[in-house]
Structure formats: C-alpha cells, structure tokens
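Researcher: Let's do a round of design. I'm pasting the structure tokens now; please hold your answer until I've finished.
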C-alpha cells in the first residue's frame, strides 16, 4: 500500500531549526515530485516548497526562501525539508504530497498522494 509518512515536527523556539522528513513507502519508482504544504489554524493550505524527481528543480514560497531547504534521497525514498530561522508564523501542520511523473507544483490539486501531516510549533 502506498503511503507518505511525515516526521520531524515539534516545538521549537523562534530562530531555531527543525528537519522534516517525508518517507514514501511502497513506491517502486523514483519518477515523482514531492511538495511540502502547510496549514495553520483558520488558514488555507499553502505550498511551501517542492522538488522534482531528479532533484534538479526546487522551488520555495517567498515566505520561506532563504530559510528552508528541500532535498531528496532517492535511494531511501525520502524527501527532507530543513527549516532554519523559524518564526512563529511558520507554526502549522506540515504535509508532504506526491505527484507522479511531474515536476512539482504549488497547487495542491496536482498531487496524487498525501501524508497525514506533522505539527510544527514555533513559540517561546
């Protein structure tokens, strides 16, 4: 059964760092893009970053550019989101999503599978 499982969330002080991991379980091909999205209470889900199947294309939302870094390890079917200099406004549930045979997108409608999310809370 195909699954995406996020991990690495938690409580961190402003200015701190976290690394989120997305494990793609049951996928036998590397031809998929991964996107990271987040949803804060009372707000719509927004795209944070995405990476193409080869890792050659990486995009970031303006709100996280320069602070977050996306990467992938195809040998282990994992994608990471390194989050540095975290701010209280980064607090949200973070989801990873998989798009078959695509380059990635900030549109959540273009993804085929979703994880259940991991909570990130930035607070002093």
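Researcher: That's everything. Go ahead.
Model: Designed sequence:
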């Amino acid at each position: 059964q195909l699954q995406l499982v996020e991990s690495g969330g938690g409580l961190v002080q402003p200015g701190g760092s976290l690394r989120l991991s997305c494990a793609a379980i049951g996928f036998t091909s590397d031809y998929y893009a991964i996107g990271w999205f987040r949803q804060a209470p009372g707000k719509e889900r927004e795209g944070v970053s995405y990476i193409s199947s080869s890792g050659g294309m990486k995009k970031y939302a303006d709100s996280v550019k320069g602070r977050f870094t996306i990467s992938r390890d195809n040998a282990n079917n994992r994608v990471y989101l390194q989050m540095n200099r975290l701010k209280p406004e980064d607090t949200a549930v973070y989801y990873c999503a998989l798009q078959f045979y695509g380059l990635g997108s900030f549109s959540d409608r273009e993804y085929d599978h979703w994880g259940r999310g991991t909570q990130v809370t930035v607070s002093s």
